[in-house]
Design brief:
Blueprint lengths: L23 E2 L16 H10 L1 E4 L5 H17 L7 E3 L5 E5 L1 H4 L1 H7 L5 H8 L3 E11 L7 E5 H9 L6 E7 L11 E2 L6 E2 L11 H4 L10 H11 L2 E2 L7 E5 L3 E4 L8 E10 L29
Antiparallel strand pairs: 1-9, 2-11, 3-4, 4-5, 5-13, 6-12, 7-11, 7-13, 8-10, 8-12
InterPro entries: EctD, Phytyl_CoA_dOase-like
Subunit structure: Homodimer.
Enzyme class: oxidoreductase
């Protein structure tokens, strides 16, 4: 079912403003489901609600890893240089591949695994659809980092996502060490929305996917957030999944080691959280960045 994007809903999280303003306390719960609704235990749900993230080892059985790594290599080889879904580093190497589940049946199968889809439904307390999917590639020596940001800020400002009822699942395809650009998060920061200063440039996605500048908190804000919440670094072997709330502040450094870091990144949005018009951009981003087709995943 295609979504009519003409409607407008109330903006609870104004951002991309002319001048700094106070942080906004989150209005929605982080966890919408209950323990009987899925595979997560009560302790898991409390961790997700409190920290804004949850690490799930062995989300992918080892039998999946070689085929998925082969698929990543194949996609990198056959990628059309003119395909906007293929995001390249300024040095020329591939940085991200969007909609990889449309490139690969193997990757598409991951979405519906019993260790993935039921978790998304349980956290969000509803049927879900894929808002965005990508593979992040961080090769050895040249992989660029991702600056501190809240995904929800961008999805709200540029995609029209009204509420914080989306969750990300980042599944490691290679081991995430402390030294090869593994993700850093500020636990608990998902409870606070930090409005950003500065209007959204036209066609911002054409540059922000390489280096994000609009929608990024200033250094004083990030310093205060880090002092309040601290910073955790998420590591683990291939097959480990990191589930994290849409508003969790996170980022990663560049990879100057010889060891690559690649992850499948799936964003599940509740079917009850339909996108509206962008709240701080002149027009919606392309479908491969923000799906407006809300066909639910699975049966």
């Amino acid at each position: 079912m295609a979504v009519d994007t003409a409607h407008r809903v109330r903006d609870h999280y104004p951002t991309r403003l002319d001048q700094p303003t106070e942080p906004i306390t989150r209005a929605e719960p982080t966890v919408w489901g209950r323990e009987p609704d899925g595979p997560l235990t009560g302790a898991d749900l409390r961790t997700m609600a409190g920290a804004g993230y949850l690490v799930r080892p062995d989300t992918l059985d080892p039998i999946w890893l070689a085929p998925l790594q082969d698929e990543l290599a194949r996609i990198s080889t056959v990628a059309d240089a003119g395909d906007p879904r293929i995001i390249r580093e300024r040095t020329g190497g591939i940085r991200s591949v969007f909609q990889p589940h449309l490139f690969s049946e193997v990757i598409a199968e991951v979405i519906s695994l019993d260790t993935v889809l039921p978790v998304a439904r349980q956290i969000l307390g509803s049927d879900v659809y894929i808002h965005q999917a990508r593979i992040n590639v961080m090769p050895g020596f040249t992989g660029g980092g991702f600056y501190w940001h809240s995904d929800f800020e961008t999805w709200h400002a540029e995609d029209g996502m009204p509420a914080m009822r989306a969750v990300s699942c980042s599944i490691a395809l290679t081991e995430n060490f402390p030294y090869n650009g593994s993700l850093m998060v500020m636990p608990g920061s998902h409870e606070v929305f930090y409005p950003c200063v500065g209007a959204t440039p036209a066609n911002n996605h054409e540059s922000s996917l390489i280096r994000q500048e609009a929608g990024v908190p200033d250094r004083n804000t990030l310093t205060a957030a880090a002092e309040r919440f601290g910073i955790d670094q998420v590591t683990g072997p291939a097959g480990t999944a990191l589930w994290f709330d849409s508003n969790l502040m996170h980022g990663s450094g560049s990879n100057i080691t010889p060891f690559p870091r690649s992850n499948i990144f799936l964003v599940f949005n509740s079917v009850e959280n339909r996108l509206s018009e962008p709240f701080a951009a002149s027009r919606p981003r392309p479908e491969y960045l923000a799906a407006r087709d809300m066909r639910r995943v699975g049966n």
